[in-house]
Amino acid sequence: MNCSRKDIILNAGFALALVILVVIGSLYYVNVTAMTEFDRMEENSFAVSLELEELFSAMLDVENGELTFILTGDEKLLKQYRAAIVRIEECLAKLKSLTKNSPAGQNRVYRVEPLIREKLAEVAETIAAREKEGFRAAYQSEFNYEHEQVLEEVRSQLAEAREAIGRHLDREIAVKEARTGRTTLAFFTGSILSLSLLLSIFLLLRRDITRRQRAEEKIEKLNTLLAERAAQLETVNRELEAFNYTVAHDLRKPLTVVNSYCQVIRELCGGKLDEQCQGYLEEIYKGTMSMNRLIDALLNFSRLTHVELHREAVDLGAMATVVTSELRFAEPGRQVTFRITAGIRVEGDANLLRLVLDNLFGNSWKYTAVREEAVIEFGAMEIDNQQAFFIRDNGAGFDMADADKLFIPFKRLPGAEECRGFGVGLATVERIIRRHGGRVWAEGEPGNGATFYFTLPPAEARAAVPYASMAEE
Questions:
Q1: 3-state DSSP call for residue 385?
Q2: Are 92 and 111 in contact (CB under 8 A)?
Q3: Residue 3: pLDDT band by 50, 70, 90 thresholds?
Q4: Which of 68, 253, 268, 372 is the most exposed place for a label (fewest CB within 10 A)?
């Protein structure tokens, strides 16, 4: 009788524990499914937000290109304007695709699109006026209240869309937190009950179930904590990138206005200003242009995170020859000897790798200006059983104690204040090489030059690099 009762208790306890675990598992599965859908919606919302930022950025580029062309009349300067038109069309298409399952989102896109079209039409008319009737006609067309009002309406509509996305995310987060709270409560309640049953069974069967249960709970809590920290870090990174875009574009607008008024004063009042005032005007103009270039550098550096890699076969030797030829053309008076290894072929994104060589050769070009006879080399070697590429110069060099500062954005080494640039070139190199799966480092000595090394993952099939073949210019 006692054995039968014990068997019944054990079977009932196991069955009840199993039911509780099944219920908990089902709740967990439902919650995970809901969280996955929320993450997808959150990712889509962030993508929509970024596209809205890019759309407004393109609108500003259209206006900047228009203003620059009005002031100069140089057809070549319309390149920025035309590129921005293409970006606007791409952004509108992406926004329509991203909001295809959201009637409210689609409505906002279709509401702002006519305003954008109207603004583009006004810009096109102003450019046409500049081409046909000259500066004054274009100036009168550009600087009027209605012209500015359209852009402000576009800004307002885009801001309203971003705020709506934020409100939607807040609501979804509240739902997520409520769901998580209920699931957590059910999970812990069920776990406690299940633990009690299993503990009773343990007392009957002499099994060490409690210790295993506690270990599982600790592991689950740790995994949850790690996942939350990773999600928080990703959110912060996205917010910082969005803030970077917003600040850079908001800075560009007043700079463009100051630059434009400098041009207008020079155009309309240049003959009435004395030499000192003209000098002040020129300094203001140069300062705004320098700040504009800094903003461009900041935006380009930020965009490297989102640029899609297009891998292909790249001849680094031939690319290096083109880069050095452009440096010579820019400063023909410099006495610089280039030694370029021919036939270095890799696999990577050609446009990004061109940026790497532009920045590294440009860096050596700047810091060898102290030499009457400068030498800059480009080649490849084996380092730790891996192919590494290098650019070496006999320039000013640097103290190895400062080597960790070289690739930090906007960080300038001691004594580098007189050199041109904004301190993002080497940081750009590091980010591009890292995105390719490689690494970059430098060695140097004050007064004895510097060598910058970088690696790239090898292609599956590629001819060996002829290290001994050096072409000297």
A1: coil
A2: no
A3: low
A4: 372
